[in-house]
TrEMBL record:
Biological process per Gene Ontology, one example term: regulation of DNA recombination
Coiled coil region boundaries: none
Stored InterPro entries: RdgC
Species in which this protein is naturally found: Ventosimonas gracilis
Keywords from the UniProt entry: Cytoplasm, DNA recombination
Superkingdom classification of source: Bacteria
Major location (coarse): cytoplasm
Gene Ontology MF terms: double-stranded DNA binding
Compartments where located: Cytoplasm, Nucleoid
PANTHER family associated with the record: RECOMBINATION-ASSOCIATED PROTEIN RDGC
Name of the protein this chain belongs to: Recombination-associated protein RdgC
Lineage, opening ranks: Bacteria, Pseudomonadati, Pseudomonadota, Gammaproteobacteria, Pseudomonadales
One annotated Gene Ontology cellular component of this protein: cytoplasm
Family statement: Belongs to the RdgC family.
Length: 307
């Protein structure tokens, strides 16, 4: 339940989302098993619980939790390539002619279709939290492509999804570089031992540090030579540790044991109740954390309201 990575999106206009109407809309794009002739299937599934009765939207306070599930058949390219090569050699040998591009493509499609029913299936799930009152949507992931897959399907289900990736007024790399140079982050944030430095030249080098003394002379020399910080590990109020990159992607998100233990206590012996308590506490913590983070990075660049 506790998100491990975070992509943050801002709604560009007010949107009326409630659990009941959202769940009804998501049924149009509900997850289905991957058919024997399909490469993949994608749709919304219950974020908590299992079975036909489990709701597609979990509501807790002012927050909504949804999940998108993907089933994809694993068909290694090398297997298809070898089968195609063998088939082409057979035709060219038996018929004494060359197989050209259009026929090759048709043969490849036929080979893929014949192999798909025997391919292994890989299953994955992506969670997303919606905070309508805050105007935010949070995806548990670090891949923009994976998040966009969920957002596109959500947009198709509800008809409109006016949002964009969150942005701040000052380039994150400039702020992170300043924090590392001065060995001091904004109030509430503390530097940890990991960072990534990049040369600003086109073919410049990259320096990655893990569990290092970031106050060392070596790090300062890299900064003095013009390298900028593109990733930096931070702690926020001893509640969250994370790595922030220059695209505002939050990685390796980890919540303090005190929070997870509190959620376990609040949830009691019931597994679903514990998941609900974890989600609520996580979202309350992230709401406070993201507000502090955006402020520390120079303030959020808010979209202009539409007239």
């Amino acid at each position: 339940m506790w998100f491990r990575n975070l992509l943050v999106y801002r709604f560009t206009q007010d949107i009326n989302l409630d659990a009941e109407h959202l769940a009804k809309a998501l049924t149009a794009k509900a997850a289905k098993p991957c058919a024997s002739g399909e490469l993949f299937s994608y749709g919304f599934s219950a974020p908590l619980g299992k079975g036909a009765d489990a709701p597609l939207v979990h509501a807790s306070g002012d927050f909504l939790l949804i999940a998108a599930s993907k089933e994809e058949r694993l068909l290694p390219g090398a297997v298809v390539k070898d089968a195609l090569k063998e088939k082409i050699e057979e035709i060219e040998s038996a018929q004494m002619r060359k197989v050209y591009r259009k026929e090759r493509e048709q043969m490849q499609d036929e080979i893929v279709q014949s192999l798909l029913p025997r391919a292994f299936i890989r299953r994955s799930q992506t969670l997303a939290a919606i905070a309508p009152k805050l105007g935010l949507l949070l995806v548990n992931g670090a891949s923009a492509n994976r998040a966009e897959e969920l957002l596109t399907t959500l947009r198709e289900a509800i008809g409109s999804l006016p949002l964009r990736p969150v942005s701040v007024k000052i380039a994150p790399s400039a702020t992170l570089t300043d924090w590392l140079k001065n060995q001091k982050a904004a109030d509430g944030f503390v530097l940890q031992g990991d960072c990534e430095l990049r040369d600003t030249h086109e073919d410049g080098g990259i320096v990655r540090c893990q569990r290092q003394d970031l106050a060392s002379e070596e790090i300062q020399l890299h900064l003095a030579s013009g390298k900028i910080v593109t990733q930096l590990a931070l702690d926020w109020q001893e509640k969250i540790t994370f790595v922030l990159d220059d695209k505002l992607v939050i990685k390796r998100l980890r919540f303090a044991d005190l929070l997870t233990e509190q959620a376990a206590t609040d949830g009691g012996d019931d597994a679903l109740a514990e998941q609900d308590a974890s989600f609520t506490l996580m979202m309350l913590t992230l709401s406070e954390f993201l507000s502090a983070l955006f402020e520390a990075l120079g303030g959020e660049e808010l979209p202009e309201p539409r007239r």
